[in-house]
Amino acid sequence: MDFLQFLSLDFLQTTVANAGASGPVLYMIVIALSVVVSQIPGAPLAVMAGTLWSPLAAGTYTVVGGFAGALMAYGLGRRVGEPLVKALTGKTLQVDHGQSETALGLLIFLTRLLPVVSFDLVSYGAGMARLPLPIYAGATLFGMVPSTFLLTYMGDRICVSGLTAWFLGALFIVLFLGLPILVYRYNWLNVRSLLSCS
Question: How far is residue 116's CA from residue 9's CA, in Å, rounded to a whole number?
């Protein structure tokens, strides 16, 4: 079987659904890996989870797995740094160490609200910048909860038609696609100088 086929949403959905009671554990492991390895998409997995379990259960599994993966990526970025980050993501990160811890914590919180922003790069960057773990962990956990539960709710309602479906689709486009464009375009919180990659 092709490796990309192994990572496909259809394959994962079938595998997790057939795993029975161990399905949530398998899913949380995949979510954690999606943060550590940038080639695995995280947001579509959260939507998929919403189709398998209730929004509350799916959101909880996703937060636990995503938070564990974020802590792993942070630890790897802090201990190993740029060589491993480049090997795992294919990108070279440049972190501005002159920014305050508060600014970095706020930036991480805001990026966690937007599931289209790469969790792995932000996590590795925070570790490389040696942001204190309590600030990083708090900003990550509190920032990821709202967007995660919105994605799992969308997965639960994926077959909904009419006004609800239109509203959820519009909300997703405005918040998760429009906001990152505005943040980058107007350089809110001096994002470009805080963390850049090539």
Answer: 17
